[in-house]
Specification:
The chain has nine helices and 15 strands. The protein is an alpha+beta fold.
Length: 377
């Protein structure tokens, strides 16, 4: 038997990943490998089941602790499901909360299921976070085939009643020792009660085709990098008249050339001269409202932070704006002209701190130092 892969590796997350990261990753992979998206692909089906097994362990605090400590051996007898012998819909229904109630309701409404959610990404600017923004996005989804109206049958060749279940969508099987009977979904028609005689020439009987969609999305003010905006009903259409899934649009906030985000605060790192720091000055700093004037107090130290309240980003819930934090970085000039050097030397005399005389450079003094040391020894 092949060795089991590490569960964190299966879900593509780090070992210290949060519960939300694990849930999001499992959801994305389950959608990717789901057999409805990979018809007849045994490898995808195996990966789908492998992801479900990994998620069952890592989403359960007790099981995750045992796994972290003892690996796969620590899970023996921990009430694990055998995903290899489970049907896809059973696996989906186990983690129903993640897929937004995607459960396929069994025998009562034959073949009815909610459509899949789909994901896309959009990039916005930092100033869009300040005001909120409406953007039009384009994405592709598997939609109902226009040629066969989603039936999967070539027009003029209607589906026929399934010969195995007689149109019931379910078959009965004898249980252990014939004591009771089990009702299961008909394997021939997949619970539809009908079978296709001549598949649609456009969608090859799947009833779906890829279509481009454009929708307008409102990004609320204060939205964060990595958050998603949900658009109800813009996912893939459901089976058998079931409701459509949702569209999740993940937001990427582009980097700003001068401002960094820290929760609802903005940080601007601004260089000032050592004379501005020593004597005080008025300087202009970047902000999302254009350039702002800030007063630097005399004696300001390198790395000091000046807080400008209400100049940050709005909180997504309360709308209250954070602060603009201006960090001043004192820059020492690399080149001074003769006059500037003389002025600073005069200043140094008043400080009672020795500075290098003009005639002697650092390396000259270093040489002298080592010569003296050698004589000493």
């Amino acid at each position: 038997m092949a060795a089991k892969r590490d569960y964190y590796e299966v879900l593509g997350v780090k070992r210290d990943a949060s519960a939300d990261d694990i849930k999001r990753s499992y959801r994305r992979l389950a959608m990717k490998y789901h057999p409805d998206k990979n018809p007849g692909d045994k490898e995808a089906e195996q990966k789908f089941k492998e992801c479900a097994e990994a998620y069952e362990v890592l989403s359960d605090t007790a099981k995750r602790q045992r796994y972290d400590q003892y690996g796969h051996d620590g899970l023996r007898g921990a009430g694990m499901h055998d995903f290899n012998h489970m049907g896809m819909d059973d696996i989906f229904s186990m983690f129903d909360d993640i897929f937004g109630g995607r459960r396929r309701s069994g025998g009562t409404r034959r073949g009815v299921s909610r459509g899949y959610d789909i994901e896309t990404q959009i990039e916005i600017k930092l100033k869009d976070v300040l005001t909120g923004v409406e953007k039009e996005i384009e994405f592709e989804r598997r939609d109902i085939c226009g040629h066969c109206s989603g039936s999967g049958s070539e027009p003029g060749h209607p589906p026929q009643v399934c010969v195995q279940c007689g149109g019931q969508g379910q078959v009965q099987q004898a249980g252990m020792g014939g004591l009771f009977r089990m009702v299961t979904t008909c394997p021939r028609c997949g619970g539809q009660g009908k079978t296709i005689v001549k598949p649609c020439s456009k969608c090859q009987g799947t009833g779906r085709e890829s279509k481009k969609r454009r929708v307008s999305l409102k990004m609320p003010a204060g939205i964060r990098d990595g958050q998603a905006v949900r658009v109800h009903g813009e996912g893939e259409p459901g089976q058998g008249g079931g409701p459509a899934g949702d569209l999740y649009c993940y937001v990427k906030v582009a980097e700003h050339p001068f401002l960094m985000r820290n929760d609802d605060d903005l940080v601007a790192r601004v260089p000032i001269s050592f004379t501005q720091a020593a004597l005080g000055a008025k300087i202009e700093v970047p902000s999302l409202n254009g350039r702002q004037e800030v007063e630097i107090e005399a004696g300001t130290q390198h790395g000091a932070i000046i807080q400008m309240r209400g100049q940050g980003l709005p909180n997504i819930q309360s709308g209250r704006r954070g602060s603009l934090l201006v960090q001043v970085l004192v820059e020492i000039p690399k080149k001074l002209n003769k006059e500037q050097k003389n002025i600073l030397r005069d200043f140094a005399k008043t400080e009672d701190k020795s500075v290098m005389p003009e005639s002697k450079g650092f390396f000259e003094r270093l040489k002298e130092h080592f010569t003296a040391e050698n004589h000493h020894h």
